[in-house]
């Protein structure tokens, strides 16, 4: 969709979404259209701690990590995601926007990962009681729902929970959700804001920021990714493959983070076609 941008606001510690949402509102008033996807990791951690169920992470042999979501922690995760969704929608309303908070189960489908390979004390184990999911392509109905909201001037706000094939709720990765939606609706730009400046050559060294590269260089630069940044680059790759022109990985903790990102802050990854056109 023309002039459509998709935003993923990270759910990690240290991120106050209010300044980002104020920036979304200002840009909507200038004629842009936005879809907002949010994370829920810190909220789920906090709620779990209060309930005496601290979070557990699964480390995969490939170096990725994800939240272990058994039936008990699934309830906590879904509750936390709902709380964040309500807060984000309310803040957009405070800034004068019409926003619709959507649980991801209304537009997202996923297949449950029934057997996950993880590392426990350096040994590979098979985990079978996890309720996380691998996202399916957006259905025509989901696309029509989101398009109708946008055409009515409403900002969709989507939580990272999907509906499984057996009617179960599934924890899904918010970065991948945002990439799926950006690709399914042919957004111009996907912006992923988190609590780091972007892709760094050296973890913890902001002055080692990699500022830009093209889609055909992504596999090379992915070698620098550590931790959660690995998943963000997977999301970037999927969005580019679905014809999104530009992905920006930037810092949510700065003033007017979207304006800063579009002005050049963060790591910009552009499609090869976009690069050719700009060179002309």
Primary descriptors:
9 helices, two-stranded antiparallel sheet, 280 residues, alpha/beta
Question: What features would you describe in this structure?
Answer:
The chain is of the alpha/beta class. The chain has one domain (4-55, 71-109, 136-279): Acetylglutamate kinase-like (Carbamate kinase). The protein is built from nine helices and 16 strands. It has an eight-stranded mixed beta sheet, sandwiched between helices. Strands 3-4 form a two-stranded antiparallel sheet. Strands 6-9 form a two-stranded antiparallel sheet. The radius of gyration is 18 Å and the shape is globular. Mean pLDDT is 92; it is low at 276-280.
What would you call the structural class? alpha/beta
Count of DSSP E strands?
16
Report the span from N to C terminus: 24 Å
Sheet with the most strands: spatial strand order:
5-10-2-1-13-15-16-14
Q: What portion of the residues fall into strands of 2 or more residues?
A: 15-25%
Portion of residues within helices: 25-40%
String of helices and strands: EHEHEEHEEEEEHEEEHEEHHEHEH
Shape: globular
Please count the helical segments. 9
| Rounded mean pLDDT score | 92
- What would the CATH topology be? Carbamate kinase
Number of domains: 1
Low-confidence stretches: 276-280
According to CATH, what is the class?
Answer: Alpha Beta
Mind telling me which CATH architecture this is? 3-Layer(aba) Sandwich
Radius of gyration: 18 Å
Characterize the largest beta sheet: strand count, sense, and whether it forms a barrel.
8 strands, mixed
- CATH-level-4 superfamily name: Acetylglutamate kinase-like
